[in-house]
């Protein structure tokens, strides 16, 4: 026997022997009905998106029978994060197809300087291979993205925040960040319901139009101009937009930008899916005028910043490297703005934030005092007073916060509105007196109390 084997070894070359033994093994092993997809953590040097998505997706598939789980929590997280442990198997069902996910880790080999190798193995009946590749895996990627968005902590980036970002990215060393803790949402925002709906629809449409922007060759961005007196909710609306979209906010102080190259650097260090906010642009215009007066940052005219120049610049930059960008300008004085900025097509949406009217009040009453359906004796009187008084939502909110007792708070609000109304009337009559005693004798007030010429 030994002799035959050694003769065979001598007569049959090694390659052929190896081939024969594999073929014999294949022939005598029963064929598996399953296909297994191996999903490694990395594709070459980059991370494997399918692996990352599977890791998130499988958290929702953990069942009571899963034996070992990994638990963690960082200081930023509000809840525990739970993930499956190596060696565990998790079942899933997709359109009646049974699937099995296994999380496999292999220890690093001592001779090779590499870390633990991790992968998922997805097994299912062979006949569903096409369906799994064409529709189940895209479904896993999509669900994972949704779950990630839900968990995402919205950040506020400001160039004055410390640069030690918690997410580890330094964003070009330009922006520091804190978590956006602003609780404002479209539900809590006191705004005309139609305007609110228009805003939400507009944002939804914007998000869904990737292909459209590509087709027409425009940067995937949208510009909003919010105007209104202080305390009418411009900043609250921006926070509501960020919370709704789960987009980070970059708060840009134009006064801290001294040249186009500075601006380019700052803008290039912002990320996609974000809102760039430039508040109080009427004040920024003053800054520009000061520069033209020749202060230390004036420089040659070509390097000076103008608002429309800034917009052109952003358009150019974002058409080449920006996606899902929103830019918001705010102003207390729309009448003072550069006309180039107000031209149709410059900013996509103009929103005038107005004083608090009865419909907006109902949101505040529900938020602050849990009063719904006008369910309070003083409600009608307040609505009447609001129609004839200019009061901001911020002022109303402050009155409503004065007491947890709805009777006390609303009583306070009624007194406040009456006071405001009579003060306004007094100012108006003083103005009239002044004018009548002076040169402009034609000044009158109309039926609604407005001053007319
Ligand atoms: N429309 C609103 N709905 C709900 N709350 C509001 C609204 N407007 C103002 N508030 C309340 O008033 C506070 C101040 O409002 P906000 O900072 O949004 O005003 P603003 O228009 O940005 O003012 P400014 O022009 O001074 O920046 C908010 O924190 C919020 O509590
Ligand atoms: Mg503001």
What share of the residues lie within helices? Answer: 40-55%
Q: Write the CATH fold name of the largest domain.
A: Rossmann fold
Could you say what the CATH architecture of the largest domain is? Answer: 3-Layer(aba) Sandwich
Give a list of the ligands: adenosine-5'-triphosphate, magnesium ion
Mean pLDDT score: 81
Query: What's the Cα radius of gyration?
Result: 32 Å
The N- to C-terminal Cα distance equals 122 Å
Number of helices: 15
How many strands, which pairing sense, and closed or not: the largest β-sheet?
7 strands, mixed
Structural class: alpha/beta
CATH superfamily of the largest domain: P-loop containing nucleotide triphosphate hydrolases
Principal-axes geometry comes out as elongated
Strand tally is: 17
